[in-house]
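Entry 14. Ran structure prediction on the chain below.
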Amino acid sequence: RQADFKTATNGDVKILVVSIDPPEKYFFTDLPIALANWVTNFGRPRIEQLLNHTTDYFADMANKYSFLRELDDHDVVISGIKYKYKICNTYNDAEAFINTPGTANRNKLAIFLTVEGAHALSDVFELGHTITPIEFEKIKQNIATLKTWPHQPLYVALAHHFDNGFSGHCDSLNTIKPLNIPVYRAKQKFAIDADINDYGKQVIDLLLQPDAKGRRIYTDVKHLSRKNRTQYYGMVKEYNDQKGIAIPIIMSHGAVSGPQDNTIFFNDEINFDDDELVLIQQTGGIFGIQVDEKRIASHSEIERVRAEVKAYPKNDRENQYAIRYAKLFFKQVTYIGELLDSKGLPAWNIQCLGSDFDGIVNSLNGYRTSANISRLFTILVPLALDYFHDNKDWNVAANKIDGRTLVRKVLHGNAEAFLSQWY
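Output, structure tokens:
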């Protein structure tokens, strides 16, 4: 596991954003169970459960939530050491929990819930099915139920890997070789270019309606197609201009596309363009940088790294990978910062760690699990110190900051500030 709670605390992680959405069953159809298990590590019984009966997605998600609540705020002893996690609704909840005397602070984990894919709001969805008014009434009931849970998700991504009847999506599995087979590719291509339809817009609106405590559930733009993201940005502008409601644009895990002719970044629709980075900053949003080979850099750049590392002894290769991948991670950070500075904007407030741990197929060597986050901090600090020592003048003077400050902002400070502002 890349981010089980003990592994996370071993990496000195204090706050973890946990996705409780159910897997889409079409991820597993047309694949041998052994291959499906190799790709996901879900285990044969879970995969067979998803394949052998009609999946009630919302009930599946509710079961996951119930499972998490079983040990919520309870001490758990592992090898004689106390650990504890707490599901939180607000940043103040998380801060108070981490700083409360009792279990050692380094063994505490504040977790927030999220949902990756609005299919989780449906009882059943089949590819090619058009949602009926009666079915949408049940989806509305599910959203109302979600809003009565003691712990609400921070955000819900409208799309995930496959058609869900609400919008299009990105081609997210094309870089995974075992899944690059015609029958599987056809499933993901189905309705990939669809617009955000009326039901999708209603889902976004219903989630945004404040509950009795004024809490809103925002939308994550990850996995939406570029066309859909543009449509959603228009909705955000409308909320701001016509309703006076500020909506942060949230991108939970991904990377920058960079210029069309660049050879460093992975220039693909699933990554994010310059104008989107500007909008995220302008709306007070957040941009999670994904720790994934297939997103963080171009294929040629990854091959270059691999070739360099092969020249080292085997016992030193993980360390060499860790150094080089930290540099690629840092390129994401600085590309965003320099772009925003060129627009006269604050440069360092939206970048954060959006690892996608336990959702990654191609995690970075040297950073296979959340236990390696402390290593990332150690390697990033000298990179950041050198960067500000050598770098040019800034259009916004406040954008020249201390390197250690930048690393702290990216690895925890920006996420904490975002949670504090919006939750």
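The mean pLDDT is 92. Will compare against last week's run tomorrow.
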